[in-house]
Amino acid sequence: MSYRVEVCVKKVKGKCAIGYKPGECFTFEKYYIKDVGRGVCIHALASMLTLLSPFLKGVSAKTLGIGTEDNVGYVQCPDPGEPYTCGGTVVFELRREKAPD
Known about the structure:
By secondary structure, this protein is α+β, with helices and mostly antiparallel strands. It has two helices and five strands; from the N terminus they run E-E-E-H-H-E-E. The chain has helices spanning 42-56, 61-64; strands at 3-14, 25-29, 32-34, 72-76, 88-98. It has a five-stranded antiparallel beta sheet, with helices on one face.
């Protein structure tokens, strides 16, 4: 079974360096990033990269330790924000669904 994962900005703490706002989304499907508006921040991508492969292949968010439901998980970018950087951190919701054939 093939899945896709929609990644949406859930919350921004401080000021996101790339400018993400709550509600902005992009999609991972198979080996591609789709529906990218402003782009994908490399720090955000790094925070979810090791989890995306198993999540896309059917491992539940609960098993991965990123959620309390099978198909919804959460990750956070590693930017600590003020006073350590001029940015801020972003919480992303990863919502998995079956990919169209």
